[in-house]
Amino acid sequence: MPRATAGPPVESAARGPSEVALAYLASDGRVAIVNDYGSGRSEARWDPDPASLPEVASAWRASPARTGVGPLDAEEAVEGYGVFTFPYGPISMGVPESGRFDLRTYGERILALTPFVGYKSRRIVASVVGQRPEDAALRIERLAGNFAAAHASAFLAAVESARRSAVPRGELWVRALAQELQRIYNHLHVIARVAEAASQNVGAAQTHALAEELLRLEGSVFGHRWLFGALLPEGPARRLERSQRRELAVRCGELSDRFDRLWELFLESRTFIDRIQSTAPVPRDLAVRWGGVGPTLRASGVPWDDRLRVPVAPYTDLFLDLPHESGGDALARLLVRAHEIRASHLLVEQMLDRWPGDPSVPEDPGPAIAPGRGLGRVESPSGDLVYDVSMEDDRIVAVGLRTASRANFPLFARGLRDGVFTDFHFAWESFGLVFAEVDA
Amino acid sequence: MTPDPLGTLLTLAVAAFFVGAALTPIRRSLGYAASVAGAAGLVVVAVAVLLGGPVTGASWTGPLNDPEALRLDALSAFFALACAIVWLATSVYSLAYDERRSPLLALTYCLTLGSIALLLSASDQVLFLLGWETMTLASYGMILQAEGRSDRVYSAAFVFLAFGEASTLFVFLAVAGLRVGTGTFAFGPTVGPGSLATLVFVAGLIGFGLKMGIAPFHLSEWLPIAHASAPSNASAVLSSTLTLAGVYGLFRLVSLLESPPLWWGAMVLGIGAVSVLLGALFAAVSEHTKGLPAYSTIENNGLILVALGIALLASADGLTTLFVFAVFAAFYQALAHAVAKTGLFLSAGYVEHTAHTFDLNSVGGAAKEGDPGEYAGTLAATLSLAAGPPLAGFVSEWMVLEALFQSYQFGQSWVQFVGLLAGAAVALAAGLIVVAMVKFVGFSILWRPRPVRPARGGATLGGVVGVVGGIVLALGVLAPWTLVLVAPSASVLIGHGVAAPVGQLLSVPAGWSILSGSPFGILSPPMIPIALAVGAAVGVGYYALGRRSPRRRAPVWMAGSEPGRPGETYTSFAYSTGIRIMMSSVLGTREVRASAGPVSVAAVDSVEPYSVDLEVFDAFKLFYESLVRVGDALAAALKAAIMPGRLGRYLAYILIVVLVVVALVAALY
Amino acid sequence: MPSWIGQAVRYGIVTSRYPEAAATDAEVPATGRPPAATDGTVDVAAAAARCPVGAIREGELDRGRCVRCARCLPNGFAFSGPVEAATRHRSELRVGTPAPHGPGLAAAEPPLANFPRSLHVFLVDVGSCNACNLEVMALANPFYDASRLGIFFTNSPRHADVLLVVGVPTEEMVEPLRRAYEALPAPKAVVAVGVCPISGGAFRGSPGLKGSLDEIVPVDLYVPGCPPSPVNVLDGLLRVIGRGRAGGER
C-alpha cells in the first residue's frame, strides 16, 4: 500500500522539471500521489499544499464522470491553405471501439490530432455511488473487460484499505496471478494487431492463436475467459489445487517458448521493423511532463513499474526484470511489451512455485490515506491505475479513478503529429489504449 | 478582276472585327455582334477554301512596294476555321459576360480578334508581322482589363508584353532570313537546307514558341491568365487562339523550309515533351480556376510540338506514312485543344460569375442546380482534355501516342531513344492531366456543398459552354471526316497532295476508321458511341424488363459522424497533395510553418498552435526573376557609367558624335 | 519465410469443427453457457435476492439479463444451458425455473431474410467494456476462422448484411447507430451480442443509458452472454442465414 503522510508534505530530493511527476490528484484536491522518477519513490499525500505539487498535466486529474462528446483536452489548432478537418469515427472499423479522431490535414500528413471521447460514456463512476462494494465491483470489473483483473484488484485494494479490513493471503496471490495472465494476453493482442497492420499475416495469425490459447487457459482455470467474477469475494469459491497449478505452470511454459520463437521471427522481418520504427515517437521529457504511464513510459526511457515501485504482496518477494528501451517509438513500445511477456511468464512460474501453503493467513492492508478513504494502485497492462474510494457505513460515497488510457491518450495524439495517414494504425495499436477506460 | 463573292466575304469578315472595335464606344454589344458576324463569315470562307481552293480578298500594294492581299489558302483556312469556331462561342458568351461600363474590354477584344484574322489571311510576311505585332499590343490591352488595377495586374501584363515583343523580334528575324533566302516576302518560295535555313528555323521556333507558351517560356502563358486574372473571354481567346496563331506561324514556317534535317525534329520533340510534362505537373497541383487550364494549354501545345517533331524526324528519315500521320496528328491536336480549352475557360468564367473567386477550394457549388449546359459542356471539355473517349481530345491524344509508338521505325538508335523518352513523358503527363481535370470539374461543378444564387445571364453563359461541349463531342465522333476536311491543309505543310489516313478494316464501313501506319493501329471514333449505345440499351432493357428491388436514398456514410459539416470535407488542395509530396524533388515542395497564436502557459501540456503552408515553386519563374535582377543590375551599372550627370561628360559625347559623323560622311562620299 | 512455414507446420491445424461437431469444453468455458435451474430443488427466492441484475424472479429466469456473476450457483443454478442460446425473440430468453427440456433447434430453420449463403458483418460498439468487441474479433483468429463458413467482416456498412451491436447503448451513440442502420442496404438484420444491448447488462438501471437496443433499432437476433464466447457469436451469425447447429437442447 502507498505510505500515507499526514501534515506538511515532504520535499523531494530532486526537483528537476522532468524527474518529479504527479501521478494522481483527486477532484476534491485532498489526495495527491507524487512519483519521483529520479529516486524511484512514490508517495501519497493527504491534503497537500497545491503550491508544493509539481505542475499538473490535465491527464493526471481524476477523470470526472464524462457526459457528452467533447475533445479530450484542448482542441489542437492548425491553420493553413487547404487545411481541413478529417473526422475519423466514431464508427470506424480500423478502431474497434467507438471514438472519434479529428485529424487536421492538408492531405497525406497528420498536422494535428484531437481525440473526441464520450461516445461510450456509461457513467460508471457516478452509478456506483451508494452501492455496496461487492455490487459496485461487478460494474468496476466491467469498466474495461480486457483489464478486468487490474480494475478489480485495484478497486478491491482501495476498498480494503478504506475499511481497514484484512485480506487473506491467497486472495492477493490469486489477484496477482490473474493480472499477470491478463497482462500476457493484452501484450500478445497488441503485438498481433500491429503485425496485422503491417500485413504480417502469418505472424499475426500465430500470435492471435497464442492469445486465444491464453484466454482458454484463463477460462479453464478461473471459469471465465476475461476473469469476470474471478476476483470478487462473492464469486465462486476458488482454490487452486496443486495439480491445477502444475498444469498451469506447464502450459504457461509452453506458451512462453512459442512466443519467444515467434518474436525472433518478427524481429527478422525488415518490413515489419520498418513500419514501426520512428512511428509516433514520444520523447522522454514529453512522456514525463504529460503524465505517461506503463509500457509507453518505459519505452521512452523511464524505468517505472508499479510492481516494483509500489510493491504489494506477492510482488515484494518476486523477481521482476524491467526492460531497457528509450526509443519512444512504436518499435520501442513493442519491444517493451515483448520483454514483459517473458517477464510475466517468469512471474507466473515463480508464483506457482512458491504458492502459499496456507492461503487463509490474513494480510494487513496498511494504513488508509484518511479515515474511510483508501487508495488502490496496480500496474494494469497499459500502465499505472489508481482507484481512490471513499466509503461510509459500508457503502460507496465517491470513487476517484485515473486510468492508464486516460494518461497515455494525449501522448498518442502528440506522437502522431507530423505523421502520415498510414502511420495511424501502427501508432494506435502500439499504445494499447481503450476508449472504455477513458469514457467511464 | 471580277470581284469574287468569297473574296469579298473574306474582306468583310476581317474588316468586321475592326469595325466592331470602332463601334464599341457607342455600345459594347455592337462590337461583340460584329465579332459574331466576322467569325461566321470566316467559317464560311474557310470551309469553302478547304473544299475548293484558295480565296483572295482585297489586295493592295504594301509599304515596301510588294503586293499584299487578304488571302486564305488551305493551311491558313484550317486555322481560320478553328479560330472562328472559338470566336463564335466567345463572342456570344461575351455578350452576356461583359457587364462593365467601360467599352475598353470590348474594344481590345475586337482588336485582338481582328489582328489574328489579319495575320491568318496575310498573303505575305509583312502583313503577317503587322498582324502579329497588333495582336500582341491588343491582347496586352485586353489583359489590362482585369478586375481591379493592382500592381500584380500591371506587372503580369507587362511580362506578357515583354515576352510578346521578344516573340515579335524573333519572328522578325525569321522573316528577314526568309527574305534573304527567297528574295521575296510572299508565302510560297521555299528555302533550301543550310545554315540560313537553320537560323530561320531556330528563330521561328523560339518566336512562335514564345507565343505558344512552350517551356521554358511558359511563364508568358500562365502568368497573365492566372496572376493577372484576365477576364474569362479574354483568357479563352488568349489560350486558344493566340497560341493557335503561334502554331500557324510555326506550321507556315516549316512549309517554307525544304528537307528539314534530323536534329530539328529531335529538338522540337524534346522541347515538346518537356512542355507536356511540365504543363501537366503544374496543372495537377494548381488551385486556380484559370491557372489550371493555362497550364493545360502549355501541355497541349507541347503535344502539338511532339507530333510536329515526329513528323520532321519521319520526313528526314524517309518514313512517309508516319510523316503524313504525324502531321495530321498535329493538326488535329491543335483543333481539339482550341475548342476544348475555350469550353474550359468559359466554364471558369461561369464559375467566377457565381462564386466570385478563383480559388478551387472555395468554388464548390458554382453551377446552379439544373444548368445542363454548364454541366455537360464542362464535363465534355475536361474529359476531352483528359483524353476521354469518344471526345476530340481522345482522338488527338491517341494519334500522338500512336505516332510516338512508331518511333521504333527510325533508323538511328539515338532518335529511337529520344522518341522513347518523349513517349514516357507524354504517358506520365497523360496521367497527371487526368488528376488535374478531375480536380477541376469535381471541385468547381460536381461538388455542391451549398446552394447557389443563379448568375445573371447564366443561361447564356451555360448555354454557350454546352454548345462548345457539343462541338468537342462532334469533333471526336466525326473525326475521320474532319481529317478528310483537313487534308488540303496538311498537303500545304507536307509540300504535296496527301490523303487523310482514314480507311477501312474488318467490317467497319469505309472511311469510318483512322489508320496509323500501314496499318500499325486503328481507331474508329464513330463506333465508340454506337458501341456505348448498344451496351446501354442492353443494360436499360435488362433493367426495365427485369425484377427491380425498391430503391432508397440514404445519406453519405461518414463513420457515424454527421456528413457535410463545413470545414470537414476534402479540399481541392488536399486532393493534389499526394502529387506534391511524391514529386517533391521536381516541384521543390516544402512546408512553411509559423506560429499562429500565443502559447498558453497555464497548462504544462499545452501545444503551440501553428499555421502551415505547403508550397511548390516554379524554377523557371525563379530563373526569370533572377534574370530580371541581373538585367536591372547591369542597366543600373551602365547608367551609372555612361550617365553620371556631369555636364563635361555630356559635352564630350556631343563632340565625339560630331567627329564620328563627319568622319563617316567623309568616308562614304 | 521458411521459418514461418516451419512454425505453422509444427503448430498444426487448430480450427474448431463447429458447427459440424458440438462445441468442446475448451471452446466454451463454464460461464460460456447460459444459466439454468438444475432441477426442481432450486431455491428461487434466495437466488433472486442475491442476483444483482434481477434476472431471477419467481418462476422465471431471464437469460437476457444474466451477467454470469455466479452468485446464484449455491442456490441450485448452474451454467448448464445450451451453447446455442441465441433467440429471435426477446421473450424466448425468459425460461422457466426449472426450464423445460424441449426438443432442440429445428434442423432446418429458415434464414432471417433473403440472405445469400455468405454473410457480411459490420460491428458497431455503442458502449461496451471491450470484452465483447474482442470476442467478436476473435472469430477471425485461426481457432474459429469464421471465413471458412462464409462470414466476413466489412469496413463499411454499405457492404454489410448484418449489423452486429455490442455494448449498452449510450445517449451519444444513438445517432451514429441510427446512421449505421440507415446505411445498410436491405435485406439487413441486427444482432445484439451480449446482455448489455439486450437489457443493459450489469448497467441496467444506470442513469443516462438507453437500457435496451430495441428502443433504437429493430433487433432480429439476441445472443446472450457476458461476454458470449466466440462460439456463441458464431451460432448467432449462422442462425441469421439459417445454418445454425441443430440438436442443441433448449
Outline the secondary-structure elements.
The complex is a heterotrimer of chains A (440), B (669) and C (250).
Chain A: E1 4-5, E2 20-25, E3 31-36, E4 41-46, E5 70-71, E6 78-79, E7 84-88, E8 100-105, E9 109-110, E10 112-117, H1 124-127, H2 133-141, H3 148-163, E11 167-168, H4 169-197, H5 201-222, H6 242-267, H7 270-276, H8 284-289, H9 294-299, H10 306-309, H11 330-353, E12 362-363, E13 373-380, E14 383-392, E15 395-402, H12 404-415, E16 419-420, H13 424-431, H14 435-439
Parallel strand pairs in A: 1-4
Antiparallel strand pairs in A: 2-3, 3-4, 5-10, 7-8, 8-10, 9-16, 11-12, 13-14, 14-15
Chain B: H1 5-23, H2 28-51, E1 55-61, E2 67-72, H3 74-97, H4 104-120, H5 125-143, H6 151-182, H7 195-212, H8 219-227, H9 232-255, H10 262-284, H11 291-317, H12 320-355, H13 372-385, H14 392-405, H15 413-446, H16 458-477, H17 479-494, E3 502-503, E4 513-516, E5 521-523, H18 527-545, H19 572-582, H20 584-587, E6 590-595, E7 610-615, H21 619-642, H22 647-668
Antiparallel strand pairs in B: 1-2, 3-4, 4-5, 6-7
Chain C: H1 2-11, E1 36-37, H2 44-50, E2 56-57, E3 60-62, E4 77-78, E5 94-96, E6 119-127, H3 131-137, E7 151-153, E8 162-167, H4 174-183, E9 189-193, H5 195-199, E10 221-223, H6 230-240
Parallel strand pairs in C: 6-7, 6-8, 8-9, 9-10
Antiparallel strand pairs in C: 1-4, 2-3, 3-5
Task: Describe the protein.
The complex is a heterotrimer of chains A (440), B (669) and C (250). The longest helix of chain A has 29 residues, at 169-197. Chain A is globular and about 65 Å long. In chain A, 40% of the residues lie in helices and 17% in strands. Chain A has helices at residues 124-127, 133-141, 148-163, 169-197, 201-222, 242-267, 270-276, 284-289, 294-299, 306-309, 330-353, 404-415, 424-431, 435-439; strands at 4-5, 20-25, 31-36, 41-46, 70-71, 78-79, 84-88, 100-105, 109-110, 112-117, 167-168, 362-363, 373-380, 383-392, 395-402, 419-420. In chain A, strands 1-4-3-2 form a 4-stranded mixed beta sheet, with no helix packed on it. Chain B has 669 residues and is mostly helical. Chain B has a 3-stranded antiparallel beta sheet. Chain B has helices at 5-23, 28-51, 74-97, 104-120, 125-143, 151-182, 195-212, 219-227, 232-255, 262-284, 291-317, 320-355, 372-385, 392-405, 413-446, 458-477, 479-494, 527-545, 572-582, 584-587, 619-642, 647-668, and strands at residues 55-61, 67-72, 502-503, 513-516, 521-523, 590-595, 610-615. The N and C termini of chain C lie far apart (48 Å). Chains in contact: A-B, A-C, B-C. At the A-C interface, helix 1, helix 2, helix 5 and helix 6 of A face helix 1, strand 6 and helix 3 of C.
